[in-house]
């Protein structure tokens, strides 16, 4: 097929959010020739929208220990998290956050001059005893502060960014090793082959498979789609976090930090209902739990508003001082998207899809691990993943708030280190590209160019979002999910025949959206099939027909294979690196 | 509700030159922001090109000129916009296609001020300490989302985009000067001391007027000028 331009790098990083840029820094500073691709200018990546904080047991306000952080994370994950990875993350957290401060991140401060920390959902002292202030914050703009700081640091390190380049497909050779990616330069519409010794995916989440989501338009799960098409399985895709406080109707997020600062949830009767469900942690119980309680209040007729379809987040009692100083963006969002000033009135909120716990299977070194023969975890040579697109798995069945920003910097760095090591020791020279490495991507684009009598991208995407919203929501049941599996398969068929009117080369956003839809569909199918198969309730997967967690049969990670849409399973890592295993318990708050 | 638009269109693949296109779109009750309307327009005509991502005013993607004023489509209410709503790309930057401009020059200026904390003393094992009061000095500076609404409304930037740093870059310059952890104030002032880089700002305040984050680049520029003067004295 056509002659495609090729470029060579030591490393290619796909994604310039928090995870991609932390890894990039590691590689650039090590002097490796690194290309960082992003669909948007780096500071426009969705990490910029993170609000509440990044966790680390610094103990700046109250006594804290990384072992407590680890315990909370394991419990938060409903025992689906891998305990080696969780130990690694929680133990590394203080040093990772201090490093961000040294990079120049503008954290808020306490009187001693150290970083300000606020309470957050599921963060406790002494193994669940009482809430603790662990979330390190820059007002309610922590993600913005973090992302801009990492970008700035990369400017200093002279990192080479390929801005508005979209990776299309992963290139694997006959051994299954990864040797590069194909990518589309949006401005020219040209396709390139980027040949690399090591490739990192840091492409963020696929929240846009749902109709209502706190995620940006660009969160289309491209890394997942590229993996699925290249034969890499997707792990734990049934687990999606519903954040308790999305603005009703708009989907825009209101950080849990509001409740950390003392905000409370009220039902339509003005009752602080979380006291009933979680006597110790109340409004600061973990997200899966709070979201279910809210949904129950609404289902049982105690919702607020004219249609009784949401609940209220009250914070006026914090006073203008705290709101303006600690939560200024929240006030702005409430005014702009809910039409209320939280200094005076409560904000209407509903549980909203927020975060993808599953993703590309990796270990805590950022290496992508797939089953081979009897071994459930064999490294894919030359391939790494970090951030929301990856599944390390530290979040298991439910992520604790502020653990994602932490995940980005901890695993972004460890993946960067692993890549440096791999390039130095195992792949000092490039492994050859397979013949016609770009053919597959080119054929996808050619299909779009030549499609006639096809379907509108927008129609197929809406159908997908509607299905997932309806069939893989906060509460799930067998009948509904079985329907979902059938419906999403139909939508996936339609997606093969999408058609665009715009055929021009320069900045063709119609083409980009069609290519993104291919990725969304992979994530949606994986979600629906993995959800339907899991016959228990665990973390964010709440199954009406199997309401209990079933550790004997289901304490295992799912792996979805795209080629024949089958599922496989692998054990949870129960052996931490140095401390004792934290055995499963019932989760109460 | 029907809404009338006049939109700047230019596709270098097919158009000899740019033109204004009249169009109309039927809005749903949930389409509250201008971005919602543009997304709906795009469903009808998929060739309409613009950038967007977060849809909540924090990523800086969808800056454009709306009825003569720069702003973010995603936080602009459609209700209350004078019709036909006239939408153009940000002024003063080369147009790539429709509402998409080439921002290279804008980011070049941003990078030119060395937008990172410079401090060559070895960092302590804990934080570099900073009092809450010192930290407050960064408020109104660090929140910039690099949308370019300000710089592309600044006449001085239009005339000299290659020489004048522009309001966004200068705001960032002051953000690092104001940071007690940064030790390079002198070097930063040197970097700005020429007839163009800083001094092309004539305090016209267009920048303040359009900033969607309510930041005040003019004030920051004033502070840098003050420091310059102090240094000479
Ligand atoms: C509103 C909101 C608030 C949040 N608040 C918090 C919080 O307070 N604390 C916390 O810990 N977590 C929070 N989270 C979660 C957290 O912010 C995200 O999980 C995290 O930022 C994801 O980072 P990332 O680096 O993995 O991906 P992203 O930041 O999403 O970046 C993905 C990158 O990949 C690029 N990309 C994607 N596909 C391609 C492709 N095909 N080709 C090239 N580039 C591509 C994009 O351009 C982008 O640069 C929040 C999430 C949301 C939505
Ligand atoms: S105040 Fe200065 S920077 Fe701002 S618009 Fe006027 S000339 Fe430009
Ligand atoms: S100062 Fe304001 S207008 Fe200028 S780039 Fe920053 S956020 Fe945009
Ligand atoms: S889409 Fe992000 S600022 Fe408008």
TrEMBL record, chain A:
Fumarate reductase/succinate dehydrogenase flavoprotein-like C-terminal domain ranges (all copies): 461-588
InterPro entries per UniProt: FAD-dep_OxRdtase_2_FAD-bd, FAD/NAD-bd_sf, FRD_SDH_FAD_BS, Fum_R/Succ_DH_flav-like_C_sf, Fum_Rdtase/Succ_DH_flav-like_C, SdhA/FrdA/AprA, Succ_DH/fumarate_Rdtase_cat_sf, Succ_DH_flav_su_fwd
Keywords, comma-separated and alphabetical: Cell inner membrane, Cell membrane, Electron transport, FAD, Flavoprotein, Membrane, Oxidoreductase, Transport, Tricarboxylic acid cycle
Locations listed in the record: Cell inner membrane
Reaction equation(s) it catalyzes: a quinone + succinate = fumarate + a quinol
Domain of life: Bacteria
Name of the protein in question: Succinate dehydrogenase flavoprotein subunit
Organism: Chitinimonas viridis
UniProtKB/TrEMBL annotation, chain B:
Protein keywords: 2Fe-2S, 3Fe-4S, 4Fe-4S, Iron, Iron-sulfur, Metal-binding, Nucleotidyltransferase, Oxidoreductase, Transferase, Tricarboxylic acid cycle
EC number: 1.3.5.1
Pfam family, one: Fer2_3
InterPro entries linked to this entry: 2Fe-2S_ferredoxin-like_sf (IPR036010), 2Fe-2S_ferredoxin-type (IPR001041), 4Fe4S_Fe-S-bd (IPR017896), 4Fe4S_Fe_S_CS (IPR017900), Beta-grasp_dom_sf (IPR012675), Helical_ferredxn (IPR009051), SDH/FRD_Iron-Sulfur (IPR050573), Succ_DH/fum_Rdtase_Fe-S (IPR004489)
Residues of the 4Fe-4S ferredoxin-type domain: 134-164
Gene3D superfamilies: 3.10.20.30, Alpha-helical ferredoxin (1.10.1060.10)
Name of this protein: Succinate dehydrogenase iron-sulfur subunit
Pathway(s) per entry: Carbohydrate metabolism; tricarboxylic acid cycle; fumarate from succinate (bacterial route): step 1/1
Cofactor note: Binds 1 [4Fe-4S] cluster.
EC category name: oxidoreductase
